[in-house]
């Protein structure tokens, strides 16, 4: 990527000598030429392994609850083998299924456990679509949703979630649904903005989709953040709504590779028929541990609630200061641990992110990876003191890059 010439409202791309290293410019070139967000994350993790001093500000996962997980595993396996350690080959771990059934108030028949949300989405699309079917996916959005649909041969079109609210443009979606796509995919909470889609909006989307026989798949990996009383579960609202989720994001338990699909009996039967071999990557041990986690859910909920109680005020304080100086624009949503904020004057946020890395050893997620240049996604699910330092570095970096 060629450097932009400096000028009013543009970026000074000359890296300071103090932060230059032999490999950083080359790493930056590889990092910001990544074609997908997943590739960007993988390349950034390689960079962090070599340069641990680099500050990360895009992660949308809660810090892993290592102490709680160790306690769970000791109780389950130190004296004898847990009774939850059972075969998952036929119908998944029955204890985990039962815990999910009670949590979401649905029949066990409506639940299919998977190795994660992406695996669940892949299985759904293979079961419900044939090559050439049209799928509507939100924009801005998580590019893995688009890639997963394309990988099974679907034709992907987008519907809008316009700034600054990032609410689904229901009229735009209804117009596009009237043309007869086979499925809609959206996230709730929305990735990258963290915005909640209400049950009323989901019902309206389901009604419009039902007119053309379409399914609505809702990725709910961040939904627990918005739980007040009954947990969010789109699949309870209409026959053609399907929920996909996992323990990876809110609970920070990506190591377990445990996810699930919740849908109507018909949907689950179609998935089982289309995938008679099941989810071949499923781990008996990981899903046994997941069953214990689900049965001890309050311990893990307390972990993420404590983190956000300490990090959210830090994020809000820094973002308010940067907004006051015209460096950022937008709001931190009331739920979750991420925000998608506009960077006034910087439409090329790949260039901005590259400059922040080279000049300030700071990694942010540019909006280009979510289909919306001119924005960056910030995450605040980590330790508050470190978050404070990283956001201060962002503030300094944005000020120094504006001339």
Summary, kept brief:
With 403 residues, this protein is of the alpha/beta class. It has helices at residues 24-31, 37-50, 66-77, 94-104, 117-128, 143-151, 170-177, 199-210, 265-274, 284-295, 297-324, 349-360, 384-401; strands at 55-56, 111-114, 134-139, 155-160, 183-187, 215-219, 241-246, 259-262, 338-342, 362-363, 365-366, 375-379.
What is the helix fraction of residues, given as a range? 40-55%
Instruction: Label the overall shape.
Output: globular
Computed over alpha carbons, the radius of gyration is: 22 Å
Strand order of the largest sheet: 2-8-7-6-5-3-4
Q: Quickly count the domains.
A: 2
Q: How many β-strand runs?
A: 12
CATH class wording of the largest domain: Alpha Beta
Low-confidence stretches: 1-22
Separation of the first and last Cα atoms? 21 Å
Largest sheet: number of strands, sense, barrel closure: 7 strands, mixed
How many DSSP helices?
Answer: 13
What are the secondary-structure elements, in order, as H or E? HHEHHEHEHEHEHEEEHHHEHEEEH
Question: What is the correct CATH architecture of the largest domain?
Answer: 3-Layer(aba) Sandwich
Question: What can you see in these coordinates?
Answer:
- The protein is of the alpha/beta class and 403 residues long.
- It has helices at residues 24-31, 37-50, 66-77, 94-104, 117-128, 143-151, 170-177, 199-210, 265-274, 284-295, 297-324, 349-360, 384-401; strands at residues 55-56, 111-114, 134-139, 155-160, 183-187, 215-219, 241-246, 259-262, 338-342, 362-363, 365-366, 375-379.
- It folds into two domains: 24-64 and 300-401, Aspartate Aminotransferase, domain 1, CATH 3.90.1150; 84-295, 3-Layer(aba) Sandwich (Aspartate Aminotransferase, domain 2), CATH 3.40.640.10.
- It contains 13 helices and twelve strands.
- It has a seven-stranded mixed β-sheet with strand order 2-8-7-6-5-3-4, with helices on both faces.
- Residues 1-22 have low confidence and may be disordered.
């Amino acid at each position: 990527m060629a450097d932009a010439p400096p000028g009013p409202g543009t970026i000074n791309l000359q890296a300071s000598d103090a932060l230059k290293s032999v490999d950083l410019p080359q790493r930056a070139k590889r990092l910001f030429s990544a074609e997908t967000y997943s590739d960007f994350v993988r390349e950034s993790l390689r960079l962090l392994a070599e340069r641990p001093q680099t500050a990360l500000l895009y992660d949308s996962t809660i810090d892993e609850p290592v102490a709680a997980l160790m306690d769970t595993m000791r109780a389950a396996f130190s004296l004898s083998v847990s009774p939850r350690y059972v075969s998952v080959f036929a119908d998944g771990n029955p204890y985990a299924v039962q815990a999910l059934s009670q949590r979401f108030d649905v029949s066990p028949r409506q639940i299919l456990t998977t190795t994660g949300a992406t695996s669940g989405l892949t299985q759904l699309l293979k079961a419900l679509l044939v090559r050439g079917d049209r799928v509507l996916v939100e924009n801005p959005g998580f590019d893995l949703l688009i890639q997963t649909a394309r990988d099974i041969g679907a034709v992907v079109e987008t519907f809008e979630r316009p700034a600054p609210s990032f609410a689904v443009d229901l009229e735009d979606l209804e117009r596009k649904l009237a043309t007869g796509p086979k499925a809609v995919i959206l996230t709730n909470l929305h990735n990258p903005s963290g915005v909640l889609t209400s049950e009323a909006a989901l019902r309206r989307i389901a009604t419009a989709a039902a007119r053309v026989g379409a399914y609505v798949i809702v990725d709910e990996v961040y939904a627990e953040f918005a739980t007040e009383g009954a947990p969010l579960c789109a699949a309870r609202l209409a026959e053609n709504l399907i929920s996909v989720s996992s323990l990876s994001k809110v609970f920070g338990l990506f190591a377990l590779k445990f996810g699930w699909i919740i849908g109507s009996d018909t949907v689950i039967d179609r998935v089982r028929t289309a995938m008679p071999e099941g989810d071949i990557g499923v781990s008996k041990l990981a899903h046994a541990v997941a069953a214990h986690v689900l049965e001890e859910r309050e311990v893990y909920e307390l972990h993420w609630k404590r983190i956000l109680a300490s990090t959210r005020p830090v994020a809000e304080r820094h973002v308010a200061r940067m907004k006051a100086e015209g460096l950022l624009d937008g709001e931190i949503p009331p739920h979750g641990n991420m925000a998608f904020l506009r960077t006034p004057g910087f439409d090329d946020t790949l260039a901005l992110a590259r400059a922040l890395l080279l000049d300030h050893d700071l990694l942010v997620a540019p909006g280009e990876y979510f289909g919306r240049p001119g924005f960056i996604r910030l995450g605040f699910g980590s330790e508050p003191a470190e978050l404070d330092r990283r956001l201060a570095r962002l503030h300094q970096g944005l000020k120094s890059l504006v001339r």
